[in-house]
Amino acid sequence: MQAMTEQLKADLERLRQTASARLTDASDAASVDELRSTLLGRNGELTTLLKQLGDVPVAERPSIGQLANAVRGEVETAISRRLDELRGADLDRRLADESIDMSAPGRSVRVGHLHPLMMVERDLREIFHAFGFEIYEGPEIETEAMNFEALNIPPDHPARDLWDTLYVAEPGSVEQGLPRPAEDGTILRTHTSPVQVRAMLDLRPPIRIITPGRCFRYEAVDASHNFEFFQVEGLVVDRSTSLADLKGMLEQFARAMYGDGTRTRFRPGYYPFTEPSVAFDVNCLVCGGSGCPACSRTGWMTILGAGMVHPHVLRAGNIDPDEHQGYAFGMGLDRMTVLRYGIPDLRLLMGADLRFLEQFPMGA
Ligand code: DAH
Which of 33, 80, 169, 321 could form a disulfide bond with 311, CB atoms 3.0-4.6 angstroms apart? Predict the structure, then answer.
Protein backbone atom coordinates (compact mmCIF):
# COMPACT_ATOMS: atom_id res chain seq x y z
CA MET A 1 0.00 0.00 0.00
CA GLN A 2 2.76 2.35 0.96
CA ALA A 3 4.40 1.62 -2.39
CA MET A 4 1.20 2.60 -4.17
CA THR A 5 1.16 5.96 -2.42
CA GLU A 6 4.77 6.66 -3.28
CA GLN A 7 4.20 5.66 -6.87
CA LEU A 8 1.20 7.95 -7.21
CA LYS A 9 3.11 10.85 -5.67
CA ALA A 10 5.97 10.27 -8.03
CA ASP A 11 3.60 10.15 -11.02
CA LEU A 12 1.95 13.40 -9.95
CA GLU A 13 5.36 15.03 -9.52
CA ARG A 14 6.40 13.87 -12.99
CA LEU A 15 3.24 15.30 -14.48
CA ARG A 16 3.98 18.59 -12.74
CA GLN A 17 7.55 18.67 -13.98
CA THR A 18 6.99 17.58 -17.57
CA ALA A 19 3.94 19.82 -18.09
CA SER A 20 5.96 22.95 -18.59
CA ALA A 21 8.28 21.40 -21.21
CA ARG A 22 5.29 19.97 -23.08
CA LEU A 23 3.65 23.39 -23.05
CA THR A 24 6.73 25.00 -24.49
CA ASP A 25 6.51 22.54 -27.38
CA ALA A 26 2.92 23.58 -28.12
CA SER A 27 3.44 26.28 -30.70
CA ASP A 28 -0.10 27.58 -31.15
CA ALA A 29 -3.30 28.05 -29.19
CA ALA A 30 -4.91 24.93 -30.67
CA SER A 31 -2.10 22.64 -29.50
CA VAL A 32 -2.21 24.23 -26.05
CA ASP A 33 -5.94 23.48 -25.85
CA GLU A 34 -5.30 19.94 -26.92
CA LEU A 35 -2.62 19.59 -24.27
CA ARG A 36 -5.00 20.99 -21.66
CA SER A 37 -7.44 18.15 -22.28
CA THR A 38 -4.63 15.56 -22.43
CA LEU A 39 -3.39 16.72 -19.03
CA LEU A 40 -6.47 17.91 -17.17
CA GLY A 41 -9.47 16.69 -19.19
CA ARG A 42 -12.06 14.16 -18.10
CA ASN A 43 -10.03 11.30 -19.54
CA GLY A 44 -6.77 13.18 -19.08
CA GLU A 45 -3.61 12.09 -17.35
CA LEU A 46 -4.37 13.73 -14.00
CA THR A 47 -7.83 12.15 -13.81
CA THR A 48 -6.37 8.77 -14.72
CA LEU A 49 -3.84 9.05 -11.91
CA LEU A 50 -6.50 10.07 -9.42
CA LYS A 51 -8.52 6.97 -10.27
CA GLN A 52 -5.87 5.08 -8.34
CA LEU A 53 -6.72 7.08 -5.22
CA GLY A 54 -9.00 4.24 -4.12
CA ASP A 55 -5.94 2.00 -3.72
CA VAL A 56 -4.27 4.46 -1.37
CA PRO A 57 -4.80 4.11 2.40
CA VAL A 58 -7.49 6.48 3.67
CA ALA A 59 -5.02 8.35 5.86
CA GLU A 60 -2.80 9.17 2.86
CA ARG A 61 -5.59 10.35 0.63
CA PRO A 62 -5.79 13.99 1.84
CA SER A 63 -2.13 14.66 1.18
CA ILE A 64 -2.33 13.08 -2.29
CA GLY A 65 -5.49 15.10 -2.95
CA GLN A 66 -3.66 18.29 -1.96
CA LEU A 67 -0.75 17.43 -4.17
CA ALA A 68 -3.11 16.72 -7.08
CA ASN A 69 -4.86 20.09 -6.60
CA ALA A 70 -1.52 21.87 -6.44
CA VAL A 71 -0.44 20.18 -9.68
CA ARG A 72 -3.73 21.06 -11.40
CA GLY A 73 -3.37 24.69 -10.25
CA GLU A 74 0.19 24.94 -11.48
CA VAL A 75 -0.55 23.34 -14.80
CA GLU A 76 -3.52 25.67 -15.30
CA THR A 77 -1.39 28.70 -14.54
CA ALA A 78 1.29 27.46 -16.93
CA ILE A 79 -1.34 26.97 -19.62
CA SER A 80 -2.66 30.54 -19.34
CA ARG A 81 0.86 31.90 -19.30
CA ARG A 82 1.68 29.95 -22.44
CA LEU A 83 -1.50 31.17 -24.16
CA ASP A 84 -0.63 34.78 -23.28
CA GLU A 85 2.84 34.26 -24.66
CA LEU A 86 1.53 32.84 -27.93
CA ARG A 87 -1.01 35.63 -28.33
CA GLY A 88 1.69 38.22 -27.73
CA ALA A 89 3.97 36.63 -30.33
CA ASP A 90 1.14 36.48 -32.81
CA LEU A 91 0.37 40.16 -32.33
CA ASP A 92 4.02 41.09 -32.71
CA ARG A 93 4.22 39.14 -35.95
CA ARG A 94 1.07 40.76 -37.35
CA LEU A 95 2.27 44.19 -36.37
CA ALA A 96 5.50 43.54 -38.22
CA ASP A 97 3.86 41.96 -41.28
CA GLU A 98 1.05 44.41 -41.71
CA SER A 99 2.89 47.60 -41.08
CA ILE A 100 2.80 50.14 -43.90
CA ASP A 101 5.98 51.90 -44.84
CA MET A 102 4.73 55.41 -45.43
CA SER A 103 8.09 56.47 -46.81
CA ALA A 104 8.16 53.83 -49.57
CA PRO A 105 7.86 55.27 -53.09
CA GLY A 106 4.42 54.72 -54.63
CA ARG A 107 3.80 52.39 -57.54
CA SER A 108 3.13 54.42 -60.63
CA VAL A 109 -0.26 53.94 -62.26
CA ARG A 110 -0.18 53.40 -66.01
CA VAL A 111 -2.45 55.97 -67.55
CA GLY A 112 -3.54 55.39 -71.11
CA HIS A 113 -4.83 58.00 -73.51
CA LEU A 114 -7.25 58.35 -76.38
CA HIS A 115 -6.42 57.14 -79.85
CA PRO A 116 -5.11 60.07 -81.95
CA LEU A 117 -8.21 59.84 -84.18
CA MET A 118 -10.41 60.21 -81.14
CA MET A 119 -8.39 63.17 -79.87
CA VAL A 120 -9.09 65.01 -83.11
CA GLU A 121 -12.71 63.89 -82.99
CA ARG A 122 -13.01 65.28 -79.46
CA ASP A 123 -11.65 68.61 -80.59
CA LEU A 124 -14.25 68.69 -83.36
CA ARG A 125 -17.00 67.78 -80.92
CA GLU A 126 -15.90 70.59 -78.63
CA ILE A 127 -15.71 73.21 -81.35
CA PHE A 128 -19.10 72.31 -82.78
CA HIS A 129 -20.59 72.05 -79.34
CA ALA A 130 -19.61 75.67 -78.81
CA PHE A 131 -21.42 76.47 -82.09
CA GLY A 132 -24.57 74.88 -80.71
CA PHE A 133 -24.37 71.52 -82.53
CA GLU A 134 -25.53 68.29 -80.94
CA ILE A 135 -24.07 64.83 -81.53
CA TYR A 136 -26.33 62.50 -83.49
CA GLU A 137 -24.95 59.07 -84.37
CA GLY A 138 -26.19 56.57 -86.94
CA PRO A 139 -25.50 52.90 -87.74
CA GLU A 140 -22.35 51.66 -89.47
CA ILE A 141 -24.39 48.96 -91.18
CA GLU A 142 -26.78 50.78 -93.48
CA THR A 143 -29.21 50.14 -96.29
CA GLU A 144 -28.47 51.08 -99.87
CA ALA A 145 -31.66 53.11 -99.76
CA MET A 146 -30.31 55.35 -96.99
CA ASN A 147 -26.72 55.43 -98.14
CA PHE A 148 -27.60 56.28 -101.77
CA GLU A 149 -31.25 56.72 -102.82
CA ALA A 150 -32.24 59.01 -99.95
CA LEU A 151 -29.18 61.11 -100.79
CA ASN A 152 -30.32 61.65 -104.35
CA ILE A 153 -28.03 58.99 -105.80
CA PRO A 154 -30.35 56.66 -107.80
CA PRO A 155 -29.20 53.09 -108.58
CA ASP A 156 -28.01 53.87 -112.10
CA HIS A 157 -26.46 57.22 -111.24
CA PRO A 158 -22.81 57.51 -112.26
CA ALA A 159 -22.04 59.11 -108.90
CA ARG A 160 -22.33 55.67 -107.33
CA ASP A 161 -18.99 54.92 -108.87
CA LEU A 162 -17.52 57.40 -106.41
CA TRP A 163 -18.42 55.13 -103.53
CA ASP A 164 -16.99 51.69 -103.84
CA THR A 165 -19.28 49.84 -101.55
CA LEU A 166 -18.75 46.87 -99.25
CA TYR A 167 -21.90 44.78 -99.44
CA VAL A 168 -23.07 42.55 -96.62
CA ALA A 169 -23.53 39.02 -98.00
CA GLU A 170 -26.83 37.17 -98.14
CA PRO A 171 -26.42 34.59 -95.35
CA GLY A 172 -25.21 31.24 -96.75
CA SER A 173 -25.08 32.46 -100.34
CA VAL A 174 -22.13 31.63 -102.52
CA GLU A 175 -22.25 32.06 -106.27
CA GLN A 176 -19.25 31.10 -108.36
CA GLY A 177 -17.14 31.11 -105.23
CA LEU A 178 -18.36 34.56 -104.13
CA PRO A 179 -21.00 35.53 -101.60
CA ARG A 180 -24.05 37.30 -103.07
CA PRO A 181 -24.91 40.80 -101.76
CA ALA A 182 -27.83 40.79 -99.35
CA GLU A 183 -31.18 41.15 -101.12
CA ASP A 184 -32.40 43.76 -98.67
CA GLY A 185 -29.51 46.01 -99.73
CA THR A 186 -27.58 45.85 -96.47
CA ILE A 187 -24.18 47.48 -96.84
CA LEU A 188 -21.45 49.06 -94.76
CA ARG A 189 -22.02 52.82 -94.98
CA THR A 190 -19.60 54.51 -97.36
CA HIS A 191 -20.01 57.90 -95.66
CA THR A 192 -21.78 59.45 -92.69
CA SER A 193 -24.18 61.35 -94.98
CA PRO A 194 -27.09 58.88 -94.54
CA VAL A 195 -27.24 59.98 -90.91
CA GLN A 196 -28.46 63.35 -92.24
CA VAL A 197 -31.63 61.67 -93.43
CA ARG A 198 -32.02 59.60 -90.28
CA ALA A 199 -31.70 62.76 -88.21
CA MET A 200 -34.28 64.61 -90.30
CA LEU A 201 -36.74 61.72 -89.92
CA ASP A 202 -36.08 61.56 -86.19
CA LEU A 203 -35.78 65.22 -85.19
CA ARG A 204 -37.80 68.27 -86.18
CA PRO A 205 -36.24 71.56 -87.34
CA PRO A 206 -34.39 73.48 -86.20
CA ILE A 207 -31.75 70.74 -86.52
CA ARG A 208 -28.10 71.40 -85.72
CA ILE A 209 -26.09 68.21 -85.47
CA ILE A 210 -22.74 66.62 -86.16
CA THR A 211 -22.47 62.90 -86.77
CA PRO A 212 -19.02 61.45 -86.17
CA GLY A 213 -18.52 57.83 -87.16
CA ARG A 214 -16.74 55.00 -88.90
CA CYS A 215 -17.20 54.41 -92.64
CA PHE A 216 -16.08 51.71 -95.05
CA ARG A 217 -15.14 51.55 -98.70
CA TYR A 218 -13.86 48.89 -101.00
CA GLU A 219 -10.56 50.73 -101.53
CA ALA A 220 -7.20 49.76 -102.88
CA VAL A 221 -5.37 50.33 -99.60
CA ASP A 222 -2.25 52.52 -99.63
CA ALA A 223 -0.56 55.18 -97.50
CA SER A 224 -3.42 57.61 -98.02
CA HIS A 225 -6.42 55.28 -98.50
CA ASN A 226 -7.92 52.76 -96.14
CA PHE A 227 -11.01 50.57 -96.37
CA GLU A 228 -12.05 51.78 -92.94
CA PHE A 229 -11.99 55.43 -91.91
CA PHE A 230 -13.81 58.10 -89.94
CA GLN A 231 -15.92 61.03 -91.00
CA VAL A 232 -17.65 63.85 -89.24
CA GLU A 233 -20.79 65.05 -90.96
CA GLY A 234 -22.66 68.21 -90.10
CA LEU A 235 -26.26 69.20 -90.79
CA VAL A 236 -28.24 72.35 -90.10
CA VAL A 237 -31.90 72.61 -91.08
CA ASP A 238 -33.94 75.69 -90.28
CA ARG A 239 -36.13 78.31 -91.92
CA SER A 240 -34.07 80.49 -94.28
CA THR A 241 -30.74 78.76 -93.68
CA SER A 242 -28.42 80.09 -96.40
CA LEU A 243 -25.10 79.47 -98.11
CA ALA A 244 -23.86 82.61 -96.32
CA ASP A 245 -24.54 80.90 -92.98
CA LEU A 246 -22.58 77.88 -94.15
CA LYS A 247 -19.63 80.01 -95.24
CA GLY A 248 -19.52 81.99 -92.02
CA MET A 249 -19.76 78.91 -89.88
CA LEU A 250 -17.00 77.05 -91.77
CA GLU A 251 -14.67 80.04 -91.59
CA GLN A 252 -15.15 80.20 -87.86
CA PHE A 253 -14.63 76.49 -87.63
CA ALA A 254 -11.33 76.63 -89.56
CA ARG A 255 -10.00 79.32 -87.19
CA ALA A 256 -11.08 77.40 -84.11
CA MET A 257 -9.44 74.24 -85.45
CA TYR A 258 -6.27 75.60 -87.05
CA GLY A 259 -5.72 79.01 -85.46
CA ASP A 260 -6.79 82.62 -86.01
CA GLY A 261 -4.46 83.28 -88.91
CA THR A 262 -5.86 80.44 -91.03
CA ARG A 263 -6.76 81.46 -94.56
CA THR A 264 -9.73 79.81 -96.24
CA ARG A 265 -11.35 79.62 -99.65
CA PHE A 266 -14.43 78.09 -101.22
CA ARG A 267 -14.44 76.39 -104.60
CA PRO A 268 -17.38 75.03 -106.53
CA GLY A 269 -17.82 71.31 -106.01
CA TYR A 270 -20.20 68.53 -106.87
CA TYR A 271 -22.14 66.20 -104.61
CA PRO A 272 -25.49 64.71 -105.56
CA PHE A 273 -26.96 65.51 -102.15
CA THR A 274 -26.15 69.23 -102.11
CA GLU A 275 -26.98 72.03 -104.53
CA PRO A 276 -24.95 74.14 -104.80
CA SER A 277 -21.94 72.18 -103.55
CA VAL A 278 -18.59 73.54 -102.45
CA ALA A 279 -15.14 72.34 -101.57
CA PHE A 280 -13.66 74.13 -98.58
CA ASP A 281 -9.90 74.74 -98.49
CA VAL A 282 -7.50 76.01 -95.83
CA ASN A 283 -3.91 77.11 -96.38
CA CYS A 284 -1.62 74.09 -96.49
CA LEU A 285 -1.13 72.75 -92.98
CA VAL A 286 2.35 71.52 -93.84
CA CYS A 287 3.98 74.50 -95.63
CA GLY A 288 1.56 77.22 -94.51
CA GLY A 289 0.70 78.17 -98.09
CA SER A 290 4.02 78.54 -99.88
CA GLY A 291 3.62 75.26 -101.76
CA CYS A 292 5.01 71.81 -100.98
CA PRO A 293 4.49 68.18 -102.04
CA ALA A 294 1.72 67.73 -99.42
CA CYS A 295 -0.46 70.38 -101.15
CA SER A 296 0.71 69.55 -104.69
CA ARG A 297 2.44 72.94 -104.63
CA THR A 298 -0.89 74.81 -104.60
CA GLY A 299 -0.58 76.13 -101.05
CA TRP A 300 -4.13 74.91 -100.32
CA MET A 301 -5.67 71.81 -98.83
CA THR A 302 -9.27 70.73 -99.17
CA ILE A 303 -10.53 69.76 -95.72
CA LEU A 304 -14.20 69.16 -96.42
CA GLY A 305 -17.09 69.08 -98.84
CA ALA A 306 -20.28 70.99 -98.19
CA GLY A 307 -23.34 72.58 -99.71
CA MET A 308 -27.01 73.39 -99.42
CA VAL A 309 -29.02 70.24 -98.79
CA HIS A 310 -30.71 69.15 -102.04
CA PRO A 311 -34.53 69.42 -101.96
CA HIS A 312 -34.80 65.69 -102.76
CA VAL A 313 -32.78 64.92 -99.66
CA LEU A 314 -34.96 67.19 -97.52
CA ARG A 315 -38.01 65.37 -98.85
CA ALA A 316 -36.44 61.98 -98.11
CA GLY A 317 -36.10 63.29 -94.55
CA ASN A 318 -39.78 64.28 -94.56
CA ILE A 319 -39.01 67.98 -94.59
CA ASP A 320 -40.77 70.43 -96.91
CA PRO A 321 -38.12 72.33 -98.94
CA ASP A 322 -40.50 75.26 -99.33
CA GLU A 323 -40.50 75.75 -95.59
CA HIS A 324 -37.04 74.69 -94.51
CA GLN A 325 -33.58 74.82 -96.00
CA GLY A 326 -30.40 73.29 -94.78
CA TYR A 327 -26.69 73.07 -95.23
CA ALA A 328 -24.45 70.06 -94.76
CA PHE A 329 -20.76 69.34 -94.66
CA GLY A 330 -18.59 66.28 -94.35
CA MET A 331 -14.93 65.83 -93.47
CA GLY A 332 -12.46 62.97 -93.16
CA LEU A 333 -11.05 62.56 -89.70
CA ASP A 334 -8.12 60.36 -90.73
CA ARG A 335 -6.60 62.96 -93.01
CA MET A 336 -7.01 65.68 -90.40
CA THR A 337 -5.27 63.42 -87.88
CA VAL A 338 -2.28 62.51 -90.05
CA LEU A 339 -1.86 66.16 -90.94
CA ARG A 340 -1.96 67.29 -87.33
CA TYR A 341 0.60 64.78 -86.11
CA GLY A 342 2.72 64.45 -89.24
CA ILE A 343 1.92 60.74 -89.58
CA PRO A 344 3.36 59.44 -92.88
CA ASP A 345 0.93 56.56 -93.44
CA LEU A 346 -2.80 56.47 -92.76
CA ARG A 347 -2.73 52.72 -92.21
CA LEU A 348 -0.84 53.21 -88.94
CA LEU A 349 -4.03 54.61 -87.42
CA MET A 350 -5.82 51.27 -87.70
CA GLY A 351 -2.78 49.10 -86.97
CA ALA A 352 -3.43 48.72 -83.22
CA ASP A 353 0.32 48.87 -82.69
CA LEU A 354 1.07 50.25 -79.23
CA ARG A 355 4.59 51.28 -80.23
CA PHE A 356 2.92 53.71 -82.61
CA LEU A 357 -0.07 54.70 -80.48
CA GLU A 358 1.93 55.45 -77.35
CA GLN A 359 3.69 58.28 -79.16
CA PHE A 360 0.59 60.46 -78.90
CA PRO A 361 0.08 61.38 -75.27
CA MET A 362 -2.98 63.41 -74.46
CA GLY A 363 -2.74 67.14 -75.01
CA ALA A 364 0.05 66.80 -77.57
N1 DAH B 1 -20.27 62.30 -98.05
C2 DAH B 1 -19.20 62.97 -98.74
C3 DAH B 1 -18.03 62.00 -98.95
O4 DAH B 1 -18.03 60.98 -98.36
C5 DAH B 1 -18.73 64.15 -97.95
C6 DAH B 1 -19.70 65.25 -97.95
C7 DAH B 1 -19.69 66.22 -98.94
C8 DAH B 1 -20.69 65.34 -96.99
C9 DAH B 1 -20.59 67.24 -99.00
C10 DAH B 1 -21.61 66.38 -97.02
C11 DAH B 1 -21.54 67.33 -98.04
O12 DAH B 1 -22.57 66.50 -96.09
O13 DAH B 1 -22.45 68.35 -98.04
O14 DAH B 1 -17.16 62.30 -99.71
Answer: 321
